[in-house]
# Entry
Amino acid sequence: MKDLSLFLGCVIPNRYPGIEKATRLILDRLGLKWSELKEASCCPAPGIFRSFDKVTWLTIASRNIVLAEENNTDILTVCNGCFSSLMDANNILKNDAALRNEVNLHLKKINKEYKGTIEVRHIIEFLSKEIGAKNLNKLIEKPLVLRVAVHYGCHLLKPTKERKVGGAECPVFFDELVEATGAVSVPYEGKTSCCGAGGGVRSAMLETSFKMTEYKLDRIKKAGVDCIVEACPFCHLQYDGGQVELAKAGKTYNIPVVHYSQLLGLAFGYTPEEVGLHLNAVRSPEFEDKIAKIQKKDTSVK
Amino acid sequence: MKNSEILSCFQCGTCTGSCPSGKYTSLNVRRIVKDSIKKDISDQCDLWMCTTCYNCQERCPRGIKVTDAILSLRAEAVKKGRILPAHRVVCKFLIEVGHAVPIDDIHIAIREKIGLSQPETVSKYPKALNDVKILLESCGFNELVKE
# Structure
C-alpha cells in the first residue's frame, strides 16, 4: 500500500477546521504514513463543476491527482464530495483514452501529465477495508456509550458501480466502524436519504435543500439519539448550519453533528475541544457532559 | 439530448419515486427524461433541483445512467447561458481563488486558535493558484461562465 496524501478540500479547512484537527490526530494515532497534499485546489466540487463542463471538471481534478502521483501516494479524502470528484475523475481518466489525451493537452500548459498511477480513497472505506472494525475496536481507549444516527451521505456509496463498497440500500460498513467506538448505531427511517446539500441545490436553493434536511432531522429526532455521525463536511454543514436556520422558523432539534474523524478522536481519548466539537453551530451541554463523563471513567483493565 | 441510452426508458417512474428532492419540489425525473428526448429543456429550472444523490440511477430497472443524463442536460443549459446567479458566484470563487468555498478572516482566526496554520492549498502557493487559473482559461471555463 502506498503512503497517503491527505486531501482536505474546501469545507474542512475553510469552514470546519475542527474536523481537520481531528483527522490529523487520528491518522497519527493510527500510525498511518501520511502528509497533507500541498498546493491542492478545490476537488472541484461535483455538484456545480461536473454539471457545468465535464472537461473543466476533469482537468482541475486531474491536477490534484497528478500532485499525488508526483509524490507516489494515494489520495485520502475526508469528504464525500472530494471523494466523488477525485475518484470518478480518476476512473474516467484511467479508462477513457480520448478524454485522458484531451486533459493532458491542458495539463501540458503547466508542465504536468496525468499518468493514472494512484488510487483515491475515502477515510471510511479506507478504515473499513485496510484496518477493519474489529482491529479498530482494539485501539479504543474510551468506549463511547452513545446512541448515534449514522448518515452515510450519497457519494460515499453511489454510484455503486464506481464506489465498489457494496450496495447502497442497506450498507453496514460505516455502522460497523461507528460501533467499533462503543457507540450504538440506531436504525431510523430514511437513513440513506440525502441531506439535501448536494448538486448545487444548497448554494442556489437553500430553502429547498432544508426541506430535505428537515425530512432527515425529523426522523433522526424520532429515533432518539445523542448525535448524528457523518463522514462528509458538506453533510456536516447542512445538518449543523441547517439546524440554526430551521430554528429560526421555529423548528428546534438541537442534535449535535459529529464527523467520524471527531468521533474516533473522542474514542481515542481526545477531548471534545481537541477534536473541534466546540466549533459547531449546534452546541449541546448535555452531550458535552456525557462525553466528559465517559472520558473521565477509568476503563483500563484492572 | 444526444444520449441514445435514455431511449430505452419505459417511463416506470421509479426514478421519480426515489427522488428526495421531488418530494418537495417540481422536479420530476421521469418527465425530464421523457421531455429531453423530444425537446430542448435547458430553460427548466427543475434541472437544478437535483442533489445528484444517484437514487434514480441506482434503481432504474433499465440501467439508465439517469443522474449522469441530468448532468449532461445541465451542461447543455450552461452552454446556452442558463446559469443560476448563485452558481455563477461559486464559479467566480474557483476562478479567483481556486476554491468553491474560500478561506476568510474568521476561519483563519479560528485555525490559529486551535493550532492550525494556513491551509497547504493553492491559497498559500501563488504559483499553484496560477496553474489552476491557466487550466481554467485553457478549458474555456471563464468564457463559459461569463455574464
